[in-house]
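Q: Is it fine to ask for two folds in a single conversation?
A: Yes, each is treated on its own. Send the first.
Q: Here.
A: Result:
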Amino acid sequence: MLAHTPQLIVALDYPDAFRALEMAQQLIPARPWMKVGLELLMHAGPRIVADLRDLGLDVFLDGKFHDIPNTVAGAVRGAVITGARMVNVHAGGGLRMMRAAREAADVAAMTNALPRPLLIGVTVLTSLSEEELREEVGCARSATAQVIALARLAREVGLDGVVASVLEAAAIKEACGPDFLVITPGIRPARADDDQRRVATPAAAARAGADFLVVGRPITQAENPLAACEAIQAEIRGTANG
C-alpha cells in the first residue's frame, strides 16, 4: 500500500490566458494543481499565475530556468512573487546555480511574507530517448544514471525534489530518501499517442512512488475535462488504497 496519495497537476498548455482560465474554471470542483509552462507564460505573462491562484488553485510554474546563477536567482525571485506554489530549475545548471535558486527563493519568500514554493530540479526531459541522450546530447550515462546523479545534486543543495520520468521514480526515492519529491510528467492513458518517450499510466506512476503526476491533453482535450480529471484522480486513489 502507498504511504500517500499522489497529487494531480494539469498542464495548461495553451497560447492564451482566456483558454487556460476557462479550462481551470471547469476543473475547480476537482481541485488539481495547475501547471503553467513556457508557452502559456510567454503568451499570458506572469499574471496568469495570480489569476489561477485567485481561483483557489495551486500553481506549478514550469519555467525550467537554466542560466548563470545570478540570472536564475533573479528569475526565481520573480517566480516567488507571482504566488506559484512550485517552481523548477534545470539541475544540469550545477550546484552553484541550484544553490543560488534556493537562496533566492528563501529570501524572496521572507521579504514578501509569502510561503516559499517547492523548488524542484529538472533532471532528464521525458521527451528524450536513451539513444538521443547518448548520441545527440552526448551523455555517457544511461538515462537512469544521469537522473540519479542530478537528483543527488539537487538534494545536496536543499531542493525539495526533481522532475523525472516514472521509470526513475523508485530509484530516486531509494537514492534520495522517501521525503524527496518526484514530479512525473509523461502520464498518459495506455491508448494515448504523443511526443513523450518515457511515459506511464497514472496507476503505474502512483505505484512507483511519484508524488505529483502531470497530465495534459488526456484531460484538457477530453470531451468532458472534469470527468476525465476526476477519473484519473479516482485511479490514483484506488492504487493508493488497494
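Q: Second one now.
A: Result:
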Amino acid sequence: MATLAFRIPPSSQAEQKQIATIHRMLLLDGTAVLVGPDNTRVNLPSPLYDVLVKVVSTLEYGKGLSIIPQMEQLSTQTAANMLGVCRQFFVKEIEAGKVPCHYVGSHRRVYLKDVLDYGKERQSKRRASIRRMAQEANDAGLYDKFVPIDED
C-alpha cells in the first residue's frame, strides 16, 4: 500500500503574502466555501476547515509541514524520534504495554495515532507531576524561599 504522507515545503516571498491574505480571510466570521471551476459552491465541513486553518497558519510563518494519516505505520526509530526519546526507551514502553504495536516480519510497527496518543498522555502526566511538586513546595513554604549557595 502506498503511503499518503506528503510534505508541504516553506513558500516563497510572493506566496507568503498570498498565504497571509488567505489566513486573514479564513479567520473572518462566516462559513468557508470551496468554489469549483464551474462555480459550484460547497461549504467546507468543520473538520476540513480546521485543518485548512492550521495548514495556512503554519505556512504563514514560513514553516514546512507534513500531513500523514493517523493509521500510517511507523518504525520504532521514527516513532522514538517523533517523541524525542531513544529507540530503546520506546521499545521498553511497547514491551510494557503502554503503546500497541504489530509486527511486519520480525520488525515492530506502530500506528501514528497510537504514538500521538501516547505522547499526549506522557505530556499530561509530566505536567501533573510538575503541578504536584510545585504544590508540595508551596505547601511546605519553600516555593518563594531564597536559599543562598554555600561557597566554602
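Q: Anything structural to flag on that second result?
A: Two points. Strands lie at 6-8, 33-35, 41-43, 65-67, 73-75, 102-104, 107-111. DSSP finds five helices and seven strands in the chain.
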